[in-house]
Structure of Mechanosensitive ion channel family protein:
Amino acid sequence: MDGNTNHTLAELVQDLSGWEHFKQTTWNYIVDPVNWTTWLTVVLKVIIIYAAGHIVNMITRRAVSHMIQEREKSPLKFDPRRTKTIGKLIGSLISSTVNFFMIILILSQFGFNLAPILAGAGVLGLAIGFGAQSLVKDVITGFFIIFEDQFAVGDVIQTGTFKGTVEEIGIRVTRIRNWTGEVHIIPNGLITQVTNFSSHNSLAVVDVTVAYEADLEKALVITKETVLRVYESSDLIVKEPVVLGVQTVTNTDVTLRISAECRPNTQADIMRVLNLELMKALEQNGLKKIG
């Protein structure tokens, strides 16, 4: 019984001695000026890294906001909701990237081994890059389409063999509806060349054919009067049409050519109006229009 008691007391004394040693070691570590200097240095570095990351995020947000405002002032017809959505997406992407590197730098100040983290992120990025090359290409091309003002919703464009009105510009695909109603869904990565019919004024070219025997001078006067009347009554024509003169001459007829600068993608409507008015004017003045 005495042996067991002595053994228990010895263990208790040893535990108390170990606890006292732990407290003393901890206290010495806390009050050591060298350790305080190290901690303050780490805290200062963390604050600097955090402040730098915050400043970078603030600058990028303002840059994206300025870019969005410039796009909204563009003459092309952008969908404001889509533009703001893309702006937020870009801002979020940049912010996430900055925050990731900021966390990595902060962890490095506390002695964490970052090699496994960076290696894992590299392997993951490589796997995503190989597995989704076409998707990444579509997304990147979609961003460039929007921010380079290549075309916008409502524009009439042609890319490859597809021509029609742009109904939607997505991050991955673009939807185009042609004049007969079919909708073409085209991955952005396949859009390599684009012809935009809606970004600048268009030119309507009309050929008027009269009989070879007709009074040519009279036909020219009537043609000029008619196109001037159409110009004054239409808000789609931006400049007074020009009667260029005789385009072709055959054994049976003479062709006169007229050009009219009109609003973007309205040349077909203007050509129809001019053809109708010229046909009526020539017939009313006894100048038969052939064809």
User: Anything to note?
Assistant: The helical segments are 2-31, 33-72, 80-109, 115-131, 133-147, 216-233, 267-284. Residues 33-72 form the longest helix (40 residues). The chain has a mean pLDDT of 78.
